[in-house]
Amino acid sequence: MNRRSFLEGLAGAAALSQFSHIAIAQSAKSKTNKPNIVLMLVDDLGYGDFACYGSTFHETPNIDRLAREGMKFTNAYAAAPVCSPSRAGIMTGQAPARLQLTQWIPGVIYPHKKLTEPSPALHLPKGVPTLASELKALGYQTASIGKWHLGKEGYYPENFGFDVNVAGDNHGHPAPPHGYFGPFKYHNLTGYTQQDNLTEVLTQKTDEFLEQAAPKGPFFLYLAEYAVHMPLQERPEHIAKYKRKNHNQDEPDPVYAAMVESVDTALGRVRAKLEQLGVADNTIIVLTSDNGGVGFQGRSLHRIGDNGPLHGGKGFMYEGGIREPLIVHWPGVTKAGSISDVPVWGCDFLPTFISMAGGPLATRTTPCDGLDISPLLRGTGSLHRDTLYWHYPHYSDQGGTPTGGMRQGDWKLIEFFEDGHLELYNLKLDEGEQYDFASTYSDKAMQMHAQLKQWREGLHAQMPSPNPNYDPSKAGAHEGILGCSAKAPAGGRCWED
User: Which of these, 85, 91, 83, 165, lies nearest to 132 by C-alpha position?
Assistant: First the structure.
């Protein structure tokens, strides 16, 4: 070999060696530079409450921006039509029927309804893996800020993998005496004055967590807003804006609209803080809700939440009770302005977040009823699943009755446990569920019903039973609350138990 060839070879080897070291360093960095994850959960949100989901009255510029920069889902579902079981599905990746946590905690007792409800779990089971415990095992700092509603003391967020718990206890509603305005009485959030707004205070606490967590490594923030759950309360100046906009009419509700905007403002502030801290480009933001909006069937109230074209609302197995907004912004991964119509549900978050964090979901021994939806987010594939199932064997305080449901492709089946009748809808042709095809396509309805029953049996789902004390004249009355040590106070709420 001549000198020139030798030197060229030496230079090439040096360059290759340098490239290898760079590649190894970059590979190591990619393995340690896990993305931060923010899951923002809005309470009782209607499918059509955001402008990017069709609202022409509510103003949600920050949420609309998130949708423009990320992926919007049009067939995203909660795990249940009410809050606690839906949140249990999000936290554990397990169907509420499997957990036997199928009613909001603690739940209302109706002693004279046609069916006697099963006794649901009143907290997450101890030791169950959660989003927080799984991500903490992967090196994440974890914080739950806001509503928990998954158990009493001993079953709070810190008992399920969260390092920080602010305002997370068993209150399912903004706690009395002042609701969304102080003084507050929550776990690790007490005091303040009547000038302080709960949504704004939770954002302040979020800022404090992000400031201490961002420099230390990856973090998982579960920001569970109490808004837009009733009672309807907001700052007078914010309400006045929407009163002017609707010419002082009751519909659309100006207070509710101001509350929706407060959630939008909160998201804007969180994103601004992430930018300020220099971690926005490595932070995944997921925004969704736990169940549909309220103020619909079975009530004399004017419309409150906006479920868009969907039928029913909170507490019902119709689309308005379980289909939710879902927006995911994964910087550098999700295509800006992309839309997915693939059905997904709340139980998918746990395997998806573990995948995002580079964790080994395949080695878990705990059942998981969700799927990793990151192929949808990456644009690399779809999901190997054609059916979603729901189980709600309870009466809803919104007027819903015990039901089961499933979606298979474009077909949606609902089973009503009181009388056993079935309803069958084609969501591609009729997303408002106005045309029942159960008699027209009876074979299809029966085939799906058989699958639904088989799914329930496989999960040992609890079922309601005939009530020997059934009295139609008293069916609407409730005498107490599951888990309460005494009769429920006026309004049917057991705040302190």
Answer: 91
Beta bridge partners of 327: 72, 287
Element of type H or E holding 481: strand 480-481
How many alpha carbons lie under 13 Å from residue 231 in its C-beta half-sphere?
13
CA angle 213, 353, 200 (to 5 degrees): 50
Q: Measuring CA to CA, which residue among 36, 55, 38 is closest to residue 288?
A: 38
Residue ranges for the chain with pLDDT beneath 70: 1-32, 295-302, 361-364, 479-497
pLDDT tens figures, 144-173: 999 999 999 999 999 999 999 999 999 888
User: How would DSSP label each residue in 294-359?
Assistant: SS-TT--SPP-S--TT----TTSSSHHHHEEEEEEE-TTTSPTTEEE-S-EEGGGHHHHHHHHTT-
What is the spatial distance between Cα 426 and Cα 417, in angstroms, rounded to a whole number? Answer: 21
Q: Is the dihedral of CA 146, 95, 322, 109 positive or negative?
A: negative
In DSSP terms, 181 is beta-bridged to 197
State residue 41's pLDDT score. Answer: 98
Extents of the domains making up the chain: 35-379
pTM of this structure: 0.90
Separation of alpha carbons 122 and 171, rounded Å: 13
Cα 222 off chain centre by: 10
- How many angstroms separate the CA atoms of 431 and 434, rounded? 8
CATH of 35-379, one of 3.20.20.190, 3.40.720.10, 3.40.50.2300, 3.10.105.10: 3.40.720.10
Residue 260 · residue 228 · CB < 8 Å: yes
Q: Residue 477: CB partners within 8 Å, gap ≥ 6?
A: 110, 111, 112
Nearest in space to 452 (alpha carbons), one of 404, 410, 495: 404
